[in-house]
Design a protein that fits this description.
Low-confidence stretches: 73-78, 315-325
CATH class: Alpha Beta
Oligomer: single chain
Number of strands: 11
Number of domains: 1
Distance between the termini: 49 Å
Helix content: 40-55%
Structural class: alpha/beta
CATH architecture: Alpha-Beta Barrel
Mean pLDDT: 89
Order of helices and strands: HHHEEHEHEHHEHHEHEHEHHEHEE
Number of helices: 14
Shape: globular
Strand content: 5-15%
Largest sheet: 4 strands, mixed
């Protein structure tokens, strides 16, 4: 028997888990109706009207990468940015600037460098932690971890343990789109969906938290978008390590996929809202101001999103596609407040550092 829209509404407002087909049908809902449902679901998991942000910095220590994804404009062989590798003293100088600014989190990110082994990654962690023990290293990616595992002939669990022993605090769950047919088309040299899940389980075994991103607008179907969310929901059911879901639209400029028509603002808001309704076990959904712009991110705060992510003292990967959105603490406080929310500065564990109420 086919479920009616009224029955699905009852299910959503009753706080019940929805299925894949039900989630796909939400793409046809009116945007305002969908946003109200998503905000209701947000209140079920986080009744507070607080919206947080963190002072952090992304440090891309190299752009030499064997993956050479079609959707990336930053890797060296994209022929737009010269290949480089940061020296340890350069990395430490950038962390020092963050610390002086009052920042608390560093994201070390790089490509799949053909010459980097486990020892190199361990050295990167130790050099930062020895000089700045109070800085949280939310760094690397599942793809980098699998890259190290294969290069060293070690299990994913052993690689994660070595990084934890060196001082790694958490790992961003960079996910792209967790549908293998899409991954084979746009990033065939990166990890599979199953390998991403294996990394998440290894992080859980070693006591680390993570996140889950979503890059949509790469020619995938609505069903494939929901299949991505289903992978995240299942992993969260199994591990509970995903602190936040972060969707953003693909920026085709300067990539090998320039012919793709960019997703719209409505597409983004629907993705945020549907993500909130479907991911009933993830507390925080970040409003993607970097790729979507500050105004659209502000609207997302009324449609299920409840975090603004990082101020991002340094970001170069998205910038390589031509997007130049920047922000600061004062601007984020105003944006959150003007959305009718309570702005807070938070740490990596989403704990309060300062309230601006």
């Amino acid at each position: 028997m086919t479920e009616t829209r009224s029955e699905l509404q009852d299910k959503i407002y009753g706080g019940k888990r929805i299925g894949i087909d039900e989630a796909v049908s939400l793409f046809s809902w009116d945007l305002i109706e969908l946003g109200k449902a998503a905000d209701f679901r947000r209140k079920l998991i986080q009744p507070s009207e607080e919206v947080g942000f963190i002072i952090d910095r992304i440090i891309n220590y190299t752009n030499v990468c064997e993956a050479m994804c079609d959707f990336c404009a930053f890797h060296a062989r994209a022929n737009r940015i010269e290949p480089y590798e940061l020296r340890e003293e350069e990395i430490l100088a950038k962390v020092g600037e963050l610390a002086e600014f009052g920042g608390t989190q560093v994201m070390l990110q790089g490509g799949l460098h053909p010459k980097y082994n486990l020892q190199r990654y361990v050295e990167l962690v130790k050099c930062v932690k020895s000089r700045f023990p109070g800085i949280v290293l939310h760094s690397f990616s599942p793809t980098e971890i699998v890259h190290i595992s294969k290069k060293e002939g070690l299990s994913i669990e052993d690689v994660v343990k070595a990084l934890v022993d060196a001082g790694l605090d958490s790992v961003p769950g960079a996910s792209d789109l967790l549908v293998d047919s899409v991954r084979q088309r746009v990033s065939p040299k990166k990890i599979s969906t199953e390998e991403w899940c294996q990394v998440m389980k290894a992080l859980h075994q070693n006591g680390l938290k993570s996140s889950a991103t979503m890059t949509y607008g790469m020619g995938e179907t609505d069903l494939q978008k929901i299949e991505h969310l289903e992978v995240i929901r299942k992993i969260q059911d199994q591990t509970g390590i995903i602190r936040a879901f972060i969707p953003w639209s693909f920026s085709p400029a300067n990539t090998k996929m320039e012919e793709i028509i960019p997703a719209t603002g409505v597409d983004y808001l629907k993705m945020v809202a549907i993500g909130r309704i479907f991911l009933d076990n993830v507390v925080y959904i970040q409003a993607g101001w970097l790729t979507e712009g500050l105004k659209l991110a502000q609207v997302a705060l009324t449609m299920g999103a409840n975090d603004m992510g990082g101020v991002l003292m340094e970001e170069v990967v998205v910038k390589a596609t031509g997007i130049k959105t920047r922000t600061n603490e004062g601007e984020l406080v105003d944006i959150i407040r003007n959305a009718g929310k309570i702005p807070i500065k938070r740490d990596s564990n989403y704990q309060l550092i300062k309230s601006f109420d």
